Amino acid sequence: MPAQFVGLKNYIDLFKSSFAWNALQNTIIYVILAVFLELIIGLVLAVLMNRELGFFRPVVRTALTIPMFVSPIVVGIIWRMIYNPHYGLFNWLLGTQGFAPTGNEYALFFVVLADVWQWTPFMYVIILAALQSIPPEILEAGEIDGTTGWQKFIHITLPSISYAIIIALTLRFMDATKALDLIYTLTYGGPGGGTETIGFLIFRTAFNDLNIGSATSFALIFTIVMGILITRFLGWLNRRFEIV
To answer: pTM, whole model, 2 decimals?
Structure first.
């Protein structure tokens, strides 16, 4: 059948689609939860690993960075086995049997947990590098002034690494909005579209429904919106820190 020009029909259908709005909602929840948790845990780990731990520090540092070098497809397979309701580690730890974490209305949160496991090391590495770049003279001056450990962290350490935190947040935000591999192998968008993100919706529309026109329209709108958000944010970042 020859291609037909449909004008703006695909874009109008996009705004009318309940699947698109569901995917948008899931994407927003996914990105906010995953990136926030990765930032907090990564910051805590970086502060701990910045201390003198003797022989154990290089060993622990290496172990902490391993997850982010694993392919998202493999991560999805690993966590699908962990979440298996019959022989999975998750049920064993909880002391339950038959509970399927990715088979209920809270499935999206369990997908977020897998994402946090993989990408927290990314936040940790960037923040740790920033912590180690703080001139020791600044910290020593704070100690001389009689600041407590918490005051030194809030008023000296955090402002000194704020640029690194913002850069890490930006990179993870851009990557998390494209979530597809992990969801494809872990839940395939289910149950009932509960874990379907914008990236997965575009994939499903193009390769399952074979509706290339709609998928292209979804992808174009998504690219434009993301481009505007990132451009505005990087503009603010440049004015604030003059580093980009």
So the answer is: 0.91
Alpha carbons 104 and 84: distance in angstroms, whole number? 13
Q: 32 with 111: CB under 8 angstroms?
A: no
pLDDT of residue 244: 47
The torsion region of residue 23 among left (phi > 0), alpha (psi -120 to 50) and beta comes to alpha
Which residues fall within 8 angstroms of residue 171, CB to CB, at 6 or more apart?
122
pLDDT tops 70 at residue 54 = no
pLDDT single digits (tens) 86-104: 989 999 998 888 899 999 9
Give the pLDDT of residue 205: 94
C-alpha to C-alpha distance for 92 and 25, rounded to whole angstroms: 32
Is residue 161 within 8 Å of residue 134, measured between CB atoms?
Answer: yes
**Phi-psi region at 188: left, alpha or beta (left = phi > 0; alpha = psi -120 to 50):** left
**Look-up: residue for tokens 């940790």?**
124
| Residue 211: both structure tokens together | 């509706």
DSSP output for 130-172? HHHTS-HHHHHHHHHTT--HHHHIIIIIHHHHHHHHHHHHHHH
The residues, ordered by sequence, that sit 6+ positions from 54 with a Cβ below 8 Å of its Cβ are: none
